[in-house]
Design brief:
Blueprint (H helix, E strand, L loop, with lengths): L1 H17 L7 H4 L4 H8 L8 H15 L6 H31 L18 E5 L8 H8 L4 H12 L7 H5 L3 E12 L6 E9 L6 E2 L1 E5 L14 E13 L5 E9 L1 E2 L13 E3 L6 E5 L3 E4 L2 E5 L3 E4 L5 H8 L2
Antiparallel strand pairs: 1-2, 2-3, 2-6, 3-4, 5-6, 5-11, 6-7, 7-10, 8-9, 9-13, 12-13
Helix pairs in contact: 4-5
Length: 319
């Protein structure tokens, strides 16, 4: 009997090996991206197993408190009760903090320095190189830069006493980098993402970014909770005669392929270039961090790495 079992086991192993075994699945593939992710995003705490392992503690404790007979329903009841009480304690603590501050929306509308986190343009290009939209269009090779900027400004200043055409001939400032504060995985503090669009070096660099297209309470179909990945092509600042400052970015947006739900063996969302492609101008305040995309078809489609941070994971799966 043992010989027959051993023979069947060897047959099964041979069938698997001859069928072509590979390790091209997300858990193994993502290891190859650690080296580039750590400098961009910091310590990769989201890959730690400590969080999931710590979840076992409550279940083990619930088992020890059971009578060890028909223990499953007892474990579920005990764990659920403990979890509910813990959540209630957290809620009470938050309400106590709010009551002490006398403000139902803490942090909103505050002008103190510690409450504010800013996006920052860096790497200003000298005026001798770029000082107008036409020069920026020529240097970056973006044929629609002036047109898309005009479209944006017409929509932006239509309710103001400003001349959008006059803004197009104003002196501009061009930049190479946008620093974006993104909440840390722990939820305490921020990590700074540096999105670059470099056209003055031997090797050009254009980062993938997350662009907010809709408010989270009013999501548009084809977006991931109101956001969509895009490529940042240019960063600029336009100042009107009245002193109004427009901090803008030219981006090429992608679109979800096959819907905005996860699909395929990878369990990831697929994105690619839209058929009617073309750049748009957005405010830098609509840019919410660097996106990590895994090439699927070179230059055509990508997988959204929803495991890069907790926020991206929730954004993809909380639909």
């Amino acid at each position: 009997m043992r010989e027959e079992d051993g023979f069947e086991r060897r047959e099964l192993v041979n069938d698997i090996l001859q069928g072509g075994v590979h390790f091209n699945f997300p858990k193994i593939h993502l290891i190859s991206h650690y080296a580039e992710q750590i400098p961009k995003f910091g310590a990769l705490g989201q890959y730690s197993t400590d969080i999931s392992e710590a979840m076992h503690k409550g279940l083990k404790e619930a088992y020890r408190r059971s009578n060890k007979v028909n223990s499953t329903p007892q474990i579920v009841t005990t764990y659920t009760r403990d979890h509910t009480l813990a959540m209630k304690d957290l809620t009470i603590d938050v309400w106590n903090q709010i009551r002490q501050k006398g403000d139902l929306t803490p942090g909103v509308g505050r002008s103190t320095t510690e409450m504010q986190v800013y996006l920052k343009l860096r790497g200003k290009i000298k005026l001798g190189i770029i000082s107008s939209l036409e020069e920026l269009e020529r240097v970056t090779g973006l044929p629609d830069l002036v047109l898309t900027t005009e479209t944006f400004l017409r929509q932006e200043v239509r309710s103001m006493n400003s001349d959008p055409v006059g803004l197009l001939v104003q002196e501009i400032r061009a930049y190479r980098e946008l620093q974006i504060p993104v909440p840390k995985f722990s939820g305490e503090g921020f990590i700074v993402h540096s999105a670059r669009c470099t056209v003055f070096r031997e090797q050009e660099r254009y980062n993938w970014i997350w662009v907010r297209r809709q408010r989270t309470s009013d999501e548009a179909s084809g977006t991931l909770n109101g956001r969509i990945p895009g490529r940042i092509n240019a960063l600029l600042k336009v100042i009107s005669r009245e002193g109004m400052v427009y901090r803008l970015a030219h981006v090429d947006l992608l679109q979800c392929i096959g819907g905005d739900a996860v699909q395929g063996s990878e369990g990831m969302v697929r994105v690619g270039w839209p058929l009617n492609g073309g750049g748009i101008i957005v405010k830098i305040s609509q840019i919410e961090g660097i996106a990590h995309l895994i090439p699927l078809e070179l230059g055509e489609s990508w997988l959204v790495n929803n495991r890069i941070d907790l926020e991206t994971w929730n954004m993809v799966y909380d639909l």
